[in-house]
Amino acid sequence: MMKRILTAVFLMLPLPAMAEEVVLGLSKNQVAITTSFDGSDILVFGAVKRETPINTEEPLEVIISIEGPSEPIVVRRKENRFGIWVNTDSLEVDRAPSFYAIATTAPFHEVLSDVEDLRHHVSIDRAIRSVGAPQNISDAEAFTDAVIRIREGKGLYQLLEGQVALDQQTLFRTRIDMPADLTEGNYITRILLTRNGVVVSKYEAVVDVRKVGLERFLFNMSREQPFWYGIMSLIIAIAAGWGASAAFSMLRNN
Amino acid sequence: MQIYLPIAEVSVNAFLLLGLGGMVGVLSGMFGVGGGFLMTPLLFFIGIPPAVAVATEANQIVASSFSGVLAHFRRRTVDFKMGFILQIGGLIGAALGVVVFNYLKALGQVDLLVTLCYVVFLGVVGVLMFIESLNAIRKARKAGGSPPPKRRQRGWVHALPFKMRFRTSGLYISVIPPIIVGICVGILAAIMGVGGGFIMVPAMIYILGMPTKVVVGTSLFQIILVTAFTTMLHATTNYTVDIVLAVLLLVGGVIGAQIGTRIGVKMKAEQLRILLALMVIVVCLKLATDLLFTPSELYSLGAAGGH
Predict the structure, then answer these.
(1) Which residues of A touch B258 (CB under 8 A)?
(2) Domain span including residue A171
(3) Residues A11 and A83 in one domain
(4) Among residues A25, A158, A163, B261, which one has the fewest Cβ atoms lying within 10 Å of its Cβ?
(5) Is A212 on the interface with B (CB under 8 A)?
(6) Hey, is the C-beta of B291 within 8 angstroms of any chain A C-beta?
(7) Pair (A56, A141) in one structural domain
(8) B113 in contact with A at a CB cutoff of 8 Å?
(9) pTM above 0.90, yes or no
């Protein structure tokens, strides 16, 4: 923050950095994972609040991203050895969001410069971090590319260029689809306003993705009382086995 | 109808799971195999995380085996004495198997070795059974339906000490071979994450010389104990038993097992064996192609720390 103000002062920009602010609305700030959960969509909408006249020289652009909780993952690569395909090289990716969607008003490279992307970690490439590839792997990038490719295929990573509608440089909205296999946790919704590829304002909100009802109960029980959870599983299994057997022998006797 | 699984954390079609459970249940009742060797790869294929698939499958096998064994129990085709003796070996073997499994995991090639285990054992067992039952059918036809010779094994199995009488099986043999069979199957079961019926059934027939009709019930009985033990182990250490997934699979499974047991009674032992052999060979070939052909995606993602 300090750095940005200093930069702004140094460049003698006509407006202070936060002259434009985001007022945000979300169609929901909680996603409940119920037994019949089959994905969800979130409508992100809002307005740009400003006390000065609209800067018409450089168009305002909006970037909206939703990022799920990150977990370290292991990426393995298969190679043909002695005629069979086996996992050989593997690389641990330290940080990869379980879900990541970015929607923009225009092609990504027009709305955000590389320098700003590096600073704010906006693009999918920048959201994934892997440090310290082992000596034997010279193409670490191929592994992170694989993470993106596999997760894009499942709809977990999305780049929605031009999907944010912006009216009068003030009102913006977009819709982001979330697939069914979501990880629980806090999903960070981030809105960046940019002019000429530079971030002029930033806003964050949290969408809470939680299991509820039966899903919550079973999940908690499996973690907190694993022994009784196991016993319950076995009782259900044996009761179902006995029930089916009894039902069938009754059917046969009648 | 889509349903969200709380532990697996994926959404799947409920009817698909019911159908899969039913199909595997029929096989379980017919052949006395738990069906894990078929179901576990099928669950991987529909996107269930492997750790959850293996653990939940163990729980489902308890249900379908229990359902199947009751029908056999009524017909008195379960050799409890033999079952318990195999079980003693089975538990020792399972413990050894876990040690071997963790050692392989430390080497970082556990997936490959598990698949190779499947291919080799399914291949050998399948081909041997297929040839044997084909010969039996041919012989039965030539001799105009005369029963095959009753005592195949007269060699080392009968020369060992600690003999015991197994009335249901009509055997008077040493307890050493059943315990050794139990240990071997236990080791493989722990490594491959299955009940081990597909190895146990041929071992009972060809090594112990048990009558086929008794083999199925006894194998189911033995599998219940092994898989119940495995379920508890997974539930308390890895938290990977998904009860919703298990219920869906076992509802289909127990009904399937009842149907399967009734089909099994109507069929001749040789026909039963040749079908099981064919199925084992098909699964073996499917797994072998995965190893031999270039995969469409060379990379795979896994949770850090696990395998």
Answers:
(1) 244-245, 248
(2) 2-211
(3) yes
(4) A25
(5) no
(6) yes
(7) yes
(8) no
(9) no
Q: Do B11 and A71 touch (CB under 8 A)?
A: no
Residue of B nearest to A179 (CA): B11
Looking at CA atoms only, how far is residue A164 from chain B in angstroms? 28
Only one residue has tokens 């017919």, namely B30
Q: Given an 8 Å threshold on Cβ–Cβ distance, is A244 in contact with B254?
A: yes
pLDDT tens by residue, A94-113? 788 888 888 888 888 888 88
* B248 and chain A in contact, CB less than 8 A: no
Task: Take residue B61 and report the two structure tokens written for it.
Answer: 């096998």
From B173's Cα to the closest Cα of chain A, the distance in A is: 32
Does residue A69 sit in the same domain as residue A181? yes
Distance from the Cα of A186 to chain B's closest Cα (Å) equals 16
Do A139 and A250 have their domain in common? no
More confidently predicted of A6 and B294: B294
Q: Which residues sit opposite A75 in a β-bridge? A: A91, B301
- pLDDT tens digits, A118-165: 888 888 877 777 666 666 777 777 888 888 888 888 888 888 888 888
- Residue A245 sits in the same domain as residue A149: no
**Selection from B303, B54, B44, B290 nearest residue B191 by Cα:** B54
pLDDT greater than 60 at residue B280: yes
Do A132 and A251 lie in one domain? The reply is no
Q: At what angle do helices B212-237 and A226-253 cross, to 10 degrees?
A: 150
Domain count, chain A: 2
Confidence of residue A11 (pLDDT cuts 50, 70, 90): very low
Do A191 and A160 share a structural domain?
A: yes
Query: What band does B149 get if pLDDT is binned at 50, 70 and 90?
Result: very low
